[in-house]
Amino acid sequence: MSIKNHLIKTALKLIPISKHTPAKQKRILVVATTALGDTLWATPALKSLRTSFPDAYIAVLTSPIGHQVLQNNPWTDQLYLLEQPLFSLWKTLYRDHFDTILLFHASQRLTLPLCALLGATQIVGTAGINKGLDSLITHPLPNDYQHEILRRLKMVETIGGHIASETLSFFLNSKERTLSPAKWVAIHPGSKDGFKRWPVDHFAAVGRCLKEQTHCEILITGTAAELPLMTELAAKIPGAHLADVHLPLRAFAALLSQVDLLISNDTGPVHLACALNRPVVALYSSTDPHLCGPHKAPRATALYKRRTCEPCLKRQCRRPFCLLQISISDVINAALVYLS
Question: I need a labelling partner for 3 at 20 to 30 A (CA). Which of 101, 207, 255, 323 fits?
């Protein structure tokens, strides 16, 4: 046991927390405090919770990006933001008398101890992914080989719910169009992790070919940190457009909802496009799309080649040559299926 975990568990033993008396209304707290894709993977489970327990109070403890994802979501009663100071957050959550906590995903070590102090009679989570704090989960589930969406839905079934959906959702409330009428192909050449990036020259070749064959407009998307990469790609595709890298998530979603196709590495916008029901061609090798790729998305194609290194070096990888197994023609042919 790490020193951090030992201190956490010792502190929890010294804090007397009484369990809440079960109420007539089921009160469920969903914990999803990570990034874009992880939060979107929660949406089928949220719909299933609402369908299974229509009278329940359903709240979500989430991250700033997750808060934007879940705005206007009709299946939740309340969104809580994981932020400092934690004591104030604990007081607010404790007063809500949650009887059930579903730990979908949390990157922060203190999130599970916080949940353990809320007086819930059951905390459901996946064993083996909680930084050594599995003992704080009352109902641990095995970490089986399954898609992340199904892992979350299994927690819904564990508390007596049923699966109502396996597809992602994102609810826009704006009808503003920011793209001129045309056929638009968005290319997302970046990724937070370098080992997930297909070569920029390959993306450029795809963009030039699609522009010539389908007379589409090319929109290059990315974050502020990826602007140099976006600019490099734009210079290699005549007439390409750069998206505003400072758009808030919901404005970016409104933009993405208007494209005819997204071509992307394995990163959050893939799942956002699936949630918006936009066609997607996504590239995978170092990661397994059966675990984290498009799931039950009728207009998404995951191009997947098995990784070449075992074990995968992940963030220590200097040149992800496993992705070179995906050819330029592979991507073009997949894209033309949606653009023809």
Answer: 101
